[in-house]
Design a protein that fits this description.
Blueprint: H1 2-28, H2 46-58, H3 61-85, H4 90-101, H5 106-109, H6 111-117, H7 123-144, H8 147-151, H9 155-183, H10 190-202, H11 206-215, H12 222-251, H13 254-286, H14 294-314, H15 318-327, H16 333-362, H17 371-398, H18 403-413, H19 417-429, H20 435-450, H21 452-462, H22 472-475, E1 480-485, H23 489-503, E2 510-519, H24 528-546, E3 551-557, H25 560-571, E4 575-579, E5 581-582, H26 589-594, E6 599-600, H27 603-610, H28 624-632, E7 637-641, E8 650-655, H29 663-674, E9 677-682, H30 691-703, E10 708-711, H31 716-721, E11 726-730, H32 731-740, E12 750-755
Parallel strand pairs: 1-2, 1-4, 2-3, 4-7, 8-9, 8-11, 9-10, 11-12
Antiparallel strand pairs: 5-6, 7-12
């Protein structure tokens, strides 16, 4: 009755309101009398009018801007993924994406498309959006700097840092002397051109350098700490010099620039002495609260905007204000992480690619159309490398570093990346750099960033040193070693419980290692220790409950699977445990371009895949990443499909081939350590007369009576319906079961799918 009343009321309301609207519209036409209302009619058909309307909508500034953003983000992510795949920083791919979309390639070969996508009148909107992205990015860069590190830096780091600024800056001035007449714009003073050339040679890309240090496992070493300190000091010094250079260029004379510099000093003092204590007080008040309220967040973002506005008005560029706002943020990493997470995704994924493409639209490689121009470009690259790489390396060697460490410092300090493009665009906007020299400098930024990885590899090769990512105490340990690698806390606890079942009674003769490898793009340089502590906290709490000692191993990586393989093989573990994970877009072009992270497959999804309702990972029994690990590891690997695994009291072992007999070793381990009751199924009847299996069962039965039994296929339903805790099966047998789509697969408990040790 109630349902009928609701339906009647709904129909009545719709009918009455429709009638009122119809009456209003019809009678409203009378009101048009005497108002000279013109109905557009160009003699076109309705279809032609629709097409004209569609074309008008497509060429609307907002539609063009949205099309630009979609194209830019997609192409930038595609190129970034390609360069990440070959071991290069993604920023190189994103810069190249901008050049490709600019006049150097697309504009040259597809001019109509380029003009339609990037019409001249739309570039202003693109520039302003890219500037917003840079402001947010510089805010993050400022937050990632730890001033405490600089306050406590070693004497050697001070000397190296200053030398890495002074030497390339001086060489840049000398270079400007030789190229000024040919490449400086008309009306630009030599001092302005020379200062910008010098600062362009002096920049180090602190964010890119920090991530390379993390990726190569140097962040916890003395060398890594020194390089980070040098780069941080370098960054602050370079931006202060840049602010002074901008002031000189904008003022037109040195004396006039002193007023701007004086205002800038007052601004810095206010930020450090007034605004910073105010923000610290707010940070202290809310540091212990679970949720930071929106008004508090608004205060910090207003500080960013006001700071950027102030420096833009003073005349030292809004980016310096954004950088300064990041530096004075409360020192609590909790606060900084909140803002980094809020800002970083939007700025780096959507807005920064706009800056790369805008730079690419300005970069006209085609202007370098003769041998002389490419010769000059070569000299610029040479001066940049001599100043940063050689200058930093020789200084490091002079203060007592080894040749290997000195060359490593030089290679890292030579990284320029995005920071170089920021400086170049400022110089271009101020009219100090002509298009030809701008293009040469962009090429220099690409070359010096690209060469960092190969240079480090060459240095390691020359000095015959391989980075050991597994501690020596693990490698040299002769105990039964289990490694489990987890993505999240819940998976970590499940894998720890499973590992504990294999070693529970052998604590003194076993070693359990928990490893968490985090993609490098999810980290920032100064809170690695906090990430590590938070990652392992749930696992270590579970280890205390289980009375299981656990060794931890943490690494940031650009290739999680390859590092897992290297750790497994290098540590020569007796068993490596991992969870089964799959990206929504795993293996697809979209997944590679957008870089989606993995997620744990739900039991419901697995059941659908097992029963044939869905194909398991596109005709593969494992996702691409898991399959990659299985194919390249030389040690036994167990894949846990977790269905609320708690313990292994009742275990089901499935044998299909004689090669599956190795699974009995794991059954024995479980029986010995946790008194498991093991049911062994000889599904194909291959083991009826197998003496090896019979002897194995007999020995176990003799030592642990009533803990193991052999079942037939007729009893499989009963065995699985007895609520087993764990099913153990080999990788090859698992593939065969999936191919046959066995009807009972949807009734399995938690699964441990094991790959036997690969013979070397």
């Amino acid at each position: 009755m109630k349902k009928f009343k609701n339906s009647f009321f709904y129909v009545g309301i719709v009918g009455v309101t429709t009638a009122i609207m119809y009456w209003t519209i019809q009678n409203g036409k009378v009101l048009e009398a005497g108002r000279n209302v013109v109905v557009p009619n160009n003699g076109n058909s309705q279809w032609e009018e629709f097409l004209q309307s569609l074309v008008h909508n497509l060429t609307h500034p907002l539609a063009i801007l949205l099309a630009q953003i979609v194209t830019i983000v997609f192409v930038a992510r595609l190129f970034g993924a390609i360069f990440k795949k070959i071991g290069q920083p993604t920023v190189i791919g994103e810069i190249l994406a901008g050049i490709v979309l600019g006049p150097s390639l697309v504009g040259n070969y597809f001019p109509e498309f380029s003009l339609a996508l990037f019409p001249v009148e739309s570039l202003g909107n693109l520039q302003f959006l890219s500037q917003i992205g840079l402001i947010l990015f510089m805010f993050v860069v400022g937050m990632e700097l730890d001033l405490k590190v600089l306050q406590n830096k070693a004497k050697e780091a001070v000397i190296i840092s200053h030398a890495s600024i002074v030497i390339p800056f001086t060489l840049g001035l000398v270079l400007a002397y030789f190229i000024f007449q040919r490449f400086a714009p008309d009306g630009v003073e030599f001092i302005s051109f020379a200062l910008f050339t010098g600062i362009a040679m002096s920049i180090t890309a602190f964010p890119v350098l920090a991530r390379i240090v993390q990726e190569r496992g140097l962040h916890k070493t003395r060398l890594g700490a020194m390089v980070i300190t040098c780069a941080a000091a370098d960054d602050i010094t370079a931006w202060c010099i840049l602010a002074a250079v901008i002031a000189i260029v904008k003022a037109g004379s040195f004396v006039s620039s002193l007023y701007i510099i004086a205002l800038a000093l007052i601004y810095v003092l206010l930020m450090l002495k007034v605004v910073k204590p105010f923000l610290k007080r707010i940070g202290d008040l809310y540091d212990n609260t679970e949720i930071i309220t929106k008004p508090v967040i608004a205060i910090f973002f207003l500080t960013l905007l006001i700071s950027s506005y102030a420096t833009e008005v003073i005349g030292i560029h809004a980016l310096f204000g954004a950088f300064m706002a990041g530096v004075i943020m409360p020192e609590s990493m909790r606060f900084r992480n909140i803002f980094i997470e809020k800002v970083e995704d939007v700025s780096q994924v959507m807005l920064l690619p706009l800056f790369f493409v805008f730079t690419g639209l300005r970069t006209q490689i085609g202007l370098l159309n003769d041998a002389y121009l490419w010769e000059v470009c070569g000299y610029i690259v040479l001066v940049a490398v001599l100043g940063k790489f050689v200058g930093s390396a020789l200084t490091a060697r002079f203060v007592g570093q080894t040749w290997k460490d000195s060359l490593t410092i030089g290679a890292l300090m030579n990284t320029r990346g995005l920071m170089e493009l920021v400086v170049l665009n400022i110089g271009y906007d101020l009219g100090v750099l002509k298009p030809e020299i701008f293009a040469m400098m962009v090429i220099m930024a690409l070359v010096t960033t690209f060469m960092t990885g190969p240079a480090l590899d060459l240095i390691n090769y020359i000095f015959k040193s391989k980075t050991e990512i597994v501690p020596k105490e693990i490698i040299q340990n002769n105990k039964f070693k289990v490694l489990f690698s987890f993505h999240n806390a819940e998976e970590g606890r499940s894998l720890l419980r499973l590992a504990n079942n294999f070693v529970k009674k052998n604590h003194n003769n076993s070693l359990v290692t928990a490893m968490h490898i985090l993609p490098i793009n999810e980290l920032n340089p100064y809170n690695i220790d906090e990430y590590e502590e938070d990652s392992f906290k749930p696992v270590l709490q579970a280890s205390e409950e289980l009375h299981q000692k656990v060794t931890t191993l943490f690494k940031s990586s650009i290739d999680v699977e390859s590092d897992l393989i290297e750790v497994s093989n290098q540590g020569d573990f007796d068993l490596v445990l991992m969870g089964l994970s799959q990206s929504i877009f795993e293996g697809t072009l979209l997944g590679k371009v957008l870089g989606f992270t993995t997620r744990i497959i739900s039991p419901e999804t697995l059941l659908n895949k097992f029963t044939g309702k869905e194909k398991l990972f596109d005709n593969s029994p494992f996702d691409e990443r898991t399959g990659h690990v299985l194919s390249r590891t030389e040690v036994p690997v167990g894949i846990l499909v977790d269905k609320n695994f708690t313990d292994a009291k009742r275990v089901f072992v499935l044998l299909l081939e004689e090669s599956d007999l190795f699974l009995m070793d794991y059954a024995k381990q479980l029986i010995h350590n946790v008194n498991s009751n093991v049911t062994v199924l000889d599904k194909a009847g291959n083991f009826k007369n197998n003496t090896a299996l019979a002897d194995c069962i007999h020995k176990i039965e003799h030592k642990h009576p009533n803990h193991i039994k052999l079942a037939t296929e007729r009893k499989i339903e009963k065995a699985l319906l007895d609520e087993q805790d764990l099913m153990i099966i080999s990788v090859e047998s698992w593939k065969k079961l999936l191919d046959h789509q066995s009807s009972w697969l949807n009734k399995t408990p938690s699964l441990l799918i094991i790959k036997n040790k690969t013979l070397r």
